[in-house]
């Protein structure tokens, strides 16, 4: 076993957790809850302000200074609205669904470190770490909690007793499960490099270099999957008002509707905090600051760096919403299954190979040479395969061009069907010019008689008079 591996294992010391008195655990839990709620209230206003600035609008400016209390006013308004339960709903599941969606969003923050585990701070005279708790499998806990949140959305769509919420719930289920696969593969690359699934140990492993530099592909994959996981634009298919009239929460109102919106924004904060922990050094100060200031990573300062990084990722969410249009659902699933999952699996195999070679004693230049040779071979084989496939496609197109076009029946089987690729709708008969139609309707003089004896053109009124 090599030296770096021993250091990583030694860094996974979780003995400092679980020693706090019960009242301090309650204080830290309340702090985590308050941190999420305040961040959500700020993010909603910030999103509306930023999108308004992008679209040259004013944005909220009525409630509170600079409109900063607008989200709080919206929350109070939703709580005071009438709570309607639709007649055909399964009432028990209908009420439990928003709770199931909201609670897991809060639970994942419990294992996120806000500061170094070895640097204890004083809270009411009690020394403690800036983290609620940690586990040897903390990241698996995060994945499990994120998976439980899917049930709330699916059950909300099913229990509403309506078609469109059911479609929205099924869309969300398929989307979130698909993107969780690629997310798990991105996590696995971090586990290989850090040698641990503990969040505090992962941050400690980034003391020399952040994982965004060592694992850029994993970071890009995770950023895409976290947008799809939170159902945010451009992947907000479950709430597509154009074809679902609101999605899984169509039949919800008042506080239950507000809980779905709260779960969405809390999930945004949670996935941003996980991204900061795994790839952006966690609570560590950025590179220029940490070099000339020794105390940047001590005391309460790590909390500041962590919050700044989380806010930058939340701005990225807002930027995407104000920039990119919504994609089609087939494009969303194609990106997840045909692009993200294969790329994440291949990247994971490459990272595992590099780690195995380093553990065997190969230097970095040899590993880079082997990886470059393997990548060149794969690209060469794919180029040759594309050449043969392109030749076959050209032959098929030439053969199809010689054959007569297949007639298309738009009413096949008695039901209107859309044309398949290569087929086209039959031409629509041309309508008469507008002037001619008006003359025909009013009995104009330019109408032609349909007399079988070939009579000349005459006016409709004269025919009536005759």
TrEMBL record:
Its main location: membrane. Residues 409-466 are annotated as: Disordered. It is a multi-pass membrane protein. It comes from the Bacteria. GO terms for molecular function: NADH dehydrogenase activity; oxidoreductase activity, acting on NAD(P)H, quinone or similar compound as acceptor; quinone binding. Residues 456-466 have a biased composition (Basic and acidic residues). It is found in: Cell membrane; Membrane. It catalyses: a quinone + NADH + 5 H(+)(in) = a quinol + NAD(+) + 4 H(+)(out). Residues 416-428 have a biased composition (Pro residues). Its EC number is 7.1.1.-. GO terms for cellular component: plasma membrane. Pfam families: NADHdh. Keywords: Cell membrane, Membrane, NAD, Oxidoreductase, Quinone, Translocase, Transmembrane, Transmembrane helix, Ubiquinone. InterPro entries: NADH_UbQ_OxRdtase_su1/FPO, NADH_UbQ_OxRdtase_su1_CS. GO terms for biological process: aerobic respiration. The chain crosses the membrane at residues 22-46, 92-115, 135-158, 179-203, 209-228, 265-283, 303-323, 335-355, 367-385. NDH-1 is composed of 14 different subunits. Subunits NuoA, H, J, K, L, M, N constitute the membrane sector of the complex. NCBIfam families: PRK06076.1-2, PRK06076.1-4. NDH-1 shuttles electrons from NADH, via FMN and iron-sulfur (Fe-S) centers, to quinones in the respiratory chain. The immediate electron acceptor for the enzyme in this species is believed to be ubiquinone. Couples the redox reaction to proton translocation (for every two electrons transferred, four hydrogen ions are translocated across the cytoplasmic membrane), and thus conserves the redox energy in a proton gradient. This subunit may bind ubiquinone. Belongs to the complex I subunit 1 family. This is NADH-quinone oxidoreductase subunit H. The gene is nuoH.
